[in-house]
Amino acid sequence: MFDFQYKESVGFVSYAAAMKAKAGGCDECSEEAEEAKKAVEELSEAVSEQNEAVAENSAAIAENKTAIAENATAIAEETTAREDAVSDLNDRIDSIPGTEFDPDDYAKKEDVYTKAEADEKFLTEHQDISGLATKEELGGVTERVSTLESEFASVDEKLIGLAEANLAQDTVIATKADDLEMENKIYALTQLVGDLGGAVTYELPSPAGKSFNALMSNNGTVKLTDDVETGRFGPGVTAKNTVKLNLNGHNLSFTGTGNNGAIMARGTEQITIYGKGTIDGGELITIQGNGADSVINLTGSTTVYRNSRNGGELVYCYAGTINITNGTFRKDVGSTDYLLNCYDANYKNGTAKIIVSSTSKTSGPKFYDFNPTDNSAEGEHTNFVAEGCEVVVSTVTEDEVEHTVYMVVKSAE
Question: Is the whole model's pTM more than 0.85, yes or no?
Answer without folding.
Answer: no
